[in-house]
Amino acid sequence: GNSVTQMEGPVTLSEEAFLTINCTYTATGYPSLFWYVQYPGEGLQLLLKATKADDKGSNKGFEATYRKETTSFHLEKGSVQVSDSAVYFCALTPTGANSKLTFGKGITLSVRP
Amino acid sequence: GAGVSQSPRYKVAKRGQDVALRCDPISGHVSLFWYQQALGQGPEFLTYFQNEAQLDKSGLPSDRFFAERPEGSVSTLKIQRTQQEDSAVYLCASSLGTRGNEQFFGPGTRLTVL
Q: Higher confidence at residue A53 or residue A41?
């Protein structure tokens, strides 16, 4: 079946540090890939997505590139801010009509001033 | 416009009680999903509706779990004879279409079974 594996957390960084959160997936065909973010006290919201190989999703300074050869979708940001502190989830939807999401476990990011 | 809303936000039940969780999706959204999120884990798919039709219920963990969306808008997730392992946050999401559209999530209902 489909699965998503995220690096173990939590992650603590100083403001303006470089961020990488690793995500790899297992799926047949060509899934769509997503990063969702959950800020403290808020619901899950879509951060970025990529729907085919070599696509790069980007939003709010975050980027992730769909790498089919390594089945990865790592999240990066060049300079994190305190306001980026949140839980980040990597997810996929399979090819086909049903768009149910398969999520990774999530990773908590804390950014210190 | 209003987002996805869920009620109640918190529910405490004694083991063996029945509970009903409500989801109001964004108006006009065709697709509706329910997910279960255990503490420290990512959400896991429970069931999917396209309008009033329940097209996928493969994620429902047992026959104690039942979901409906009779008029293609509001949905209710019912859990009968709750068990401690049912304690989790139940998330509802809706999307405009049926293929690959962004899912918008509600705030969730935190269920605690004592």
A: A53
pLDDT score recorded for residue A96: 64
The larger pLDDT score, comparing residue A41 to residue B104, is at B104
Instruction: For chain A, list residues whose CB is within 8 angstroms of any CB belonging to chain B.
Output: 4, 32, 36, 42-46, 49, 51, 89, 91, 93, 97-106
**CA–CA separation, B111 vs B113, rounded Å?**
6
Query: Cβ contact (<8 Å) for A101 and B98?
Result: no
For residue B101, which residues of chain A lie inside 8 Å, CB to CB?
99
CB environment A70-85: b (16+ within 10 A), e (fewer): eebbbbebeebeeebb
Q: How far apart are CA A88 and CA A46, in angstroms?
A: 10
Bridge partners (DSSP) of residue A72 are A24, A67
Q: What is the mean pLDDT of residues B27-46?
A: 95
Smallest CA-to-CA distance from B21 within B39, B47, B1 is with: B47
Contact at CB, B100 and A51, closer than 8 angstroms? yes
| Strand A19-21 with B44-50, pairing | unpaired
What is the rounded distance in angstroms from the CA atom of residue B14 to the CA atom of residue B81? 9
